[in-house]
Amino acid sequence: MPLYNDQAVVLRNWKLGEADKIISLYGVEHGKIRAVAKGVRKTKTKFGARLEPISYLKIQCWEGSSELHIVSQVESIELFPRIKSDLELLRKGLAIVEVIEELIGDSTGDIEIFKLLVRALDTLERRDSPYLLSGFLWRLLQVEGVSPELSCCVECGEPEGLEFFSNSGSGLVCSSHGSAKRISKGAIEVISYISQGEVARALALGDSPVRLEVEELAISQVENLISHKVKALHLGSY
Amino acid sequence: MQALIDEFSKLPGIGPKSAQRISFYLLRSEQGESDRLAKSILEAKRTIKWCQRCFNLSEEDLCAICIDPERDSTTICVVEEPKDLIAIERTREFKGLYHVLQGALNPIEGVGPEQLRIRELMARLSDAAIDEVIICTNPNIEGEATSMYLARMISPTGIKVSRIASGLPVGGDLEYADELTLGRALEGRRDMA
C-alpha cells in the first residue's frame, strides 16, 4: 500500500458506518481522489473541520487495493471560513465544487483545473464578484475543451446576425437558425473575453441583466454536459 | 434463512457478512431471546410515533418533554435528529423545549426545507410566546447551511436566534485543533472576570 502526498480541495463527503466518511477530493497530481477518513465524525477527530467541502489541504493518503484510499494525515492550507459562514457565498462555493465533482472525469490531476478551482474559491473568500460563478464556469468549459463557438453560426458558419445561443451546438446561431435562446451583444462580449482567459476583466464588472444572462447560459451549458441540474444552486433560494 | 439475512442487510451499517453473523447467532440462541427481540421490534413500531409538536420520538401524541410543566417554554432548541436531543439532555444544562428538524439542508442529496420540519417550527414560533431559538445543528456544511437558513427565516419575527458554540473538546490538545475550530473557539471566548 503506497503512501502519497498531494495538495487537494475537498469536493464532497458521504457518511460511512458509525463515525467515518468517504471524502471526494481533487488533487493537483492525483486528480479525483476518493478516500475514507476514519473517525472523522467523532468530536475528538484529528482531522477536525478540515475535511468538510470547500477546504484546500495538504493530504497524505494510503493507496488501498480498492478504489477507495485512506486519509492518513491532513494539514490545512486554506479553509475558507468566510464562504462557510455566509449562505450566498456557500451556495456559490458548493456549486463550484459540485461542478468539478460532476464534470471532471477520473484522470490524473490537471494543474490548470486545479489552479482555476483554488483561484475561484480564493476570490469568493476575499471579494465576491457578480461574475465569479459565470467566470469560473465559462473558463472551466474552455479548459475542458468545450468553449463555445462565438465567431460564426454553429449551424451554417455565417459570421453575421448572431443573435441566439444554442446549448446543444455549444455556440452562437444566426437568426435564420434561431430557435435557440436569444443572447445580447453584451453577453457575447463578456463570454468572449472570459473564454480568452481574461476572467479578471469580467470580475471587475458590476451586477447587471447581462451578468444574469451570462450566468444562466454558463449553467445551462454545464447542465447539458453533466445531464442534470447543478443542485447546490438551489441552496438558500427556497 | 436467506430471507432473514436479506432483511438484516437492509439495516444501516449492516453488510451481508454481518447480516449472516446476526442471523446465525439468533438461530443458535434460546427461543426466548429471539421472541423478546421480535416483540420489542413490533412493540416499538406499534407504540412509538412522532411528537405532534416537536417531532421527537414519543409514545403519546405529545412527548414527555413537551408536556413537562417544569420546562422553560420560552426557549426552543432546534436539533437535526432525536439522537441529538438525547445528547443535549444528557448534559442536564438545557431546561427548555426542543424542535427536531429530522435532517439538515442538503441540496446535493435533494433535501430542501420542505423535507424538514421547518414549516412546523415557524408555526410554533408564531403561535407561542418564544423568546429564544437555539440552533444546535451539526457543525458541518449541511448543519451550518441549515442554521444560516433558519436564522434568515426567524430574524424578521424579532425572536432572538443563537447558534451553539463551536470550540475545543474538553480533554483534547490545542495543537491538534484545526484553524476553523480554533478560530471559532477564540471568537466565542467568554469573560472570566
TrEMBL record, chain A:
Record protein name field: DNA repair protein RecO
Residue ranges annotated for the DNA replication/recombination mediator RecO N-terminal domain, each copy included: 1-80
Superkingdom assignment: Bacteria
PANTHER family hit by this protein: DNA REPAIR PROTEIN RECO
Keywords, in A-Z order: DNA damage, DNA recombination, DNA repair
Single Gene Ontology BP annotation: double-strand break repair
Family, as annotated: Belongs to the RecO family.
CC terms in the record's Gene Ontology section: bacterial nucleoid
Protein's job: Involved in DNA repair and RecF pathway recombination.
Pfam families in UniProt: RecO_C, RecO_N
InterPro entries listed in its UniProt record: ARFGAP/RecO, DNA_rep/recomb_RecO_N, NA-bd_OB-fold, RecO, RecO_C
SUPFAM superfamilies the UniProt entry points to: ArfGap/RecO-like zinc finger (SSF57863), Nucleic acid-binding proteins (SSF50249)
Gene3D superfamilies for this protein: Nucleic acid-binding proteins, Recombination protein O, C-terminal domain, Recombination protein O, zinc-binding domain
Keyword DNA repair: yes
From TrEMBL, chain B:
Protein name in UniProt: Recombination protein RecR
Gene3D superfamilies from the UniProt entry: 3.30.60.80, 3.40.1360.10, 6.10.250.240, RecR Domain 1 (1.10.8.420)
Role summary: May play a role in DNA repair. It seems to be involved in an RecBC-independent recombinational process of DNA repair. It may act with RecF and RecO.
GO biological process: DNA recombination; DNA repair
Protein's organism: Acidithrix ferrooxidans
Keywords: DNA damage, DNA recombination, DNA repair, Metal-binding, Zinc, Zinc-finger
Assigned protein family: Belongs to the RecR family.
Domain of life: Bacteria
Any Pfam family matching the protein: RecR_C
Residue intervals of the Toprim domain: 74-169
Single GO MF descriptor: zinc ion binding
Stretches annotated zinc finger (C4-type): 51-66
